[in-house]
Amino acid sequence: MDLFGLKSRRRRRLKAQAFPAQWLETLRRNVRYYAALSEAEQAELRGHIQVFLDEKRFEGCGGLEMTDEIRLTVAAQACILLLGRETDYYPMMKSIFVYPAAYEVPAGRRAPWLEPGEEEPMEGESWYRGPVVLSWDDARKGAWDIHDGHNVVFHEFAHQLDNETGATNGAPVLGNRSTYVAWARVLREEFDRLNEDIDRDRPNVLDDYGGTNPAEFFAVATEAFFERPLALRREKPALYEQLKAFYRQDPAAREERMRAARRKRRRR
Q1: CATH fold for the domain made of 169-268
Q2: From residue 28, how far is each of 76, 144, 146 by CA, in Å?
Q3: Ranges of each domain in the chain
């Protein structure tokens, strides 16, 4: 059997293992998005988590002691982006470094817009052919508040999906040429519109940071797609459809089902 076949068999074996009860308790407590998923999606996510945790190395930084809670909370959010898709589990990324809270970058990697002596605390970073770096405080907050449109794990792992083409440019692996054409047209239009809204101080469902460049636009749009799906679908339907086709998920439909279930419970 070739290496690919061995890898596939090992992954199937990992997915078939019983999910530890303590992990499930942590997943339900820490990752509120888990409750939004269907039972089939929840089962798929648990399988992905087991593979992810087996294949990726976590390391605490800045004095942070690595725990199963940290590993599971981060892995669950990273694997939500993989539901319903063929995946090789972020093949270009092997390690996740986690700081206790927002951290300062070394002087050699300072943002170009900062003045000498200024520092800008970082919530996370994603390196091409390298690790993902995260603030545990921010990763935990993102897992808990699933409607604020901000999730550092979604953001940084969207960059990893973007990287899989060999270039970080806001265009992940999409398929045929016509798909890329439609993707480029829609995302360019919305990228330009976001920057125009920023210049004119107009509100936009997407965070201003998405106006930095196309790669950041894709990552910010991913955050909104999963955390503010109804607003994104209403205000930017073409962008929503592009992301829906790529991720093969429909978060707006999930949100509608959850709202309907809450209304039904209140009427009882």
Answers
A1: Collagenase (Catalytic Domain) (3.40.390)
A2: 10, 10, 13
A3: 1-107+119-145, 169-268
What does the chain come to in residues? 268
The string of pLDDT tens digits covering residues 90-127 is 999 999 999 999 998 765 554 444 455 556 789 999 99
For residues 53 and 75, is the Cβ–Cβ distance under 8 A? yes
**Cβ(163)–Cβ(126) below 8 Å:** yes
How many whole angstroms separate alpha carbon 212 and alpha carbon 189? 14
- DSSP letter, residue 90: S
Domain spanning 1-107+119-145, CATH class: mainly alpha
Pull the structure tokens for residue 42: 């929840």
Sheet containing 57-60: give its strands across. Answer: 57-60, 95-99, 132-135, 124-126
Task: Report in angstroms the alpha-carbon separations of 251 from 5, 24, 147, 192, 255.
Answer: 33, 22, 11, 25, 6
